[in-house]
Amino acid sequence: MKKISVLVATAIVAMSVGITSCSSGSSKSASLKTAADSASYAIGISTGAGYKENLKTLPGDPANVDDLIAGFVQAIKGDSAAMKMTPQAAQAYLQTYFVEASAKEAKKSKEEGEKFLAENKTKDGVFTTESGLQYKVEKEGAGAKPVVGDKVKVHYTGTLLDGTVFDSSVERGEPAEFALDRVIPGWTEVLQLMPLGSKYVVWVPSDLAYGERGYQGIKPNTTLKFELELLDIVKDEPAKK
Question: Would you please indicate which residues are annotated as catalytic (active-site) residues?
Answer without folding.
Answer: 156, 166-167, 184, 210, 226
